[in-house]
Structures are given as C-alpha cells and as structure tokens.
Amino acid sequence: MRDHAARLARLLETHPDVVHVEGATEALIKKDELLVLGAHADAVHESARRWVDSREDFADLGVARLRLRADAGVDAAGLVHDLRGGAGAHRRVSVTPNHVLRGAPDMTGGPFGPPAPAAQLAAPAAGPETGRRAVVGILDTGIDPHPWFTGSKWYGACTPDEYEVLDPSADWDLDSESGHGTFIAGVVLQQAPNAYLRVERVLGTDGVADELELLRGLARIQARAAAAADRLDVVNLSLGCFTFDDRPSPVLSHAVAHLARHSVIVAAAGNDGSDRPYWPAALKDVTAVAALAAEDGDGPERASFSNYGWWVDAAAPGDKVSSCFLTHGRENGEDFHGYATWSGTSFAAPYVAGRIAALMADKDMSAHDAVRQLLDPAGTHIPDLGVVVSANGH
C-alpha cells in the first residue's frame, strides 16, 4: 500500500470519523470536532453555538472538545479559520480542528515501507550505573516482550496498558505499524543501554491517533513519572501530522511548551520528502530529526523520503535501520523472529533521543545541556537538515 491514493482510501475506509482536507495544505482531521484551550472555551463555544452539538471539558488537560452538529453542514477547518479571524489574522482564540496524527508518516502511511525480517542482533550491553540515570519516554504503539527488555526494571514496571495490542483483526497479518514502539525502544537502547524507558501507548497498530489522544498520553506519562517521584528527561515522538493551514495547533503547542520546561522533546520530521512544516516536530520547543540515507562513502545525505526544511534541527540514521521487533508469522510467509530492518524518520528520532540519554549518563549532565552539546553548531551541518548526529558525524 505504498501508493498515496490507495493508502488514503484505506485510511478513510477504516476510520470513517476522519476527513481529508484537500488542497495545497492537505491534512487529515477528525470529523466535526474542534479542540479549544480551556481559557478560550466559553468564548469559542458562544461564537460557534449555532453549530455545536455538545461540549466536553477536560480540566486535567486544560482543553475542551466541541462536537459540531452532523446536520449543520459546516466544515470544521473553515469554521476554525473564521473563528481565528481569517487569513493572516493574529489568533484571538486558541482553537483548532482535531488533527489526525500518524506514526512518523507520509500523509497516509506509516514509516517508509514495510519492515523486513533481520538476523538476530546482539543485545545492547548495559554497563554499571555510575552516572546520571536518563529517563526516556516513548509515546507510540506500546511495547511487546523481547529478550532485550524482559529483565529490565523499566519493562517490569510496564502494565498491560502499555503493551502493544497485536493483530486486532485476528487475520494473522501484521498491521502497518505493528511493532513500531518495540522497534523504537530498541533504537534508543542501542545508543543508551542504561536508559530507563517509560512507554505510553497512544497509537493503534495502524499508527493512527489524534491530537486529543496525544494530549492524554502526554498527561498520563507525566503523571506516572511524578507518581514515581521521577524525572522525564527525554520524550520521543515518532509521530506527527500536517495541519490544515501549515500553522501549529495551539492546543498541542501549549502542551508541548509546558512539557519542554523540564524535558527535551525529540520528534520525527516525517516521510513525505517535503519541506512543509510537520508537527509537532516543527514546534520551536521540539528537536526535529530528519533521516539520513544509508552511508555509501560519499558523506551524509538526506534519505529520499525524509522531510526537510528550516525547522529541522538534526539528521540521523533512518534508512535500513535494524532493531528488535516482534516474533510473528505472516500469511505471505515473511516470518519475524524478534528482529527487523525498517526505514523512516521514526527511527532517526530515537537515535537522537538515545544519544542525548547517553551523554547525560556519561557526562552527568541534564538533558537540556546534553542536547545543546549534541547539536553544537560547530558540528557537521547540512542546510535544511541541521546537525548530523551519527556514528561518523557529530
């Protein structure tokens, strides 16, 4: 399902509550839903009252959801445009359609291409914990048991809520992003074997979520860390979306800015081969990571599928990456025995997250100091890709 039109058709078929916003600023949004910062909810609700069917306030998130009447015949993106004051207006109210996010996708697909079975990899060798312990949060499809994890303290703290739900259709064929979170956890551990991972499931195995689900996931993972009197040093988001107007979602921006006061946030730049801002990676409080092509001796260069642009901060290996995966047989005879090779900016982001965690432990520094050192402008820099972070780079 690599064809754009076919992928889009399948997504809309399996998610009838998703609407495709067409045009130059193509996007996916939830049908008849608006999200509003709590402080602006009353004003927006009053302005849109004739079209609103119901309102839900999420006090813990500081957000309200307005559901529009199905028979109102109003376009959610168009209504948001008007509520904000029209083209070029400074936002008077923080309101947005509820954008649909995917696991570091192109517009309607998962990571660039399907995973391929790989030979067994040596487990990352954790050393003695002599320095600072780095805590890395992974909001993704969840986690699956794997020999790399099962003896660790962090995996022992995982509950069924964090486990990946495999093969929900019971057809024995993997969904497009089954194993995505497990693979990402392995990429982090390859760079930082001593990292303590906190896993939060926000994506289904087809890689689909929406802004509200991500906000809930961010709130849950912060609450779990706080309950354990623990930090959340680095947060990896191998997911994202385009927005209907190429501007940042105000509700997601607000949540990320709050989290960024204490945590470094690393996000995948997306796999559309485009310079359109991709969110949340393009937010100023986020380290956006593009993918480098597999090295061929000519120096680092962008993987053909990777997004790029002024908003990208770093580039890391994302082409033909090998990591831990599921053990699963498929109808087409492609059997996975716990390891896979996969490509996408989904896997460049956790490479950087892992390198930040490793610097924290090795040099006993904070996450914010570690990311500043890692992305030192004196390192190898590629226009529209940022600082190169790789074994042979910075």
Automatic annotation (TrEMBL):
Peptidase S8/S53 domain sequence ranges: 131-375
Matching Pfam families: Peptidase_S8
CDD domains registered for this protein in UniProt: Peptidases_S8_S53 (cd00306)
Gene3D superfamilies: Peptidase S8/S53 domain
Keywords assigned: Hydrolase, Protease, Serine protease
Active site: D140 (charge relay system), H180 (charge relay system), S346 (charge relay system)
Protein name (database record): S8/S53 family peptidase
Species whose genome carries this gene: Catenulispora subtropica
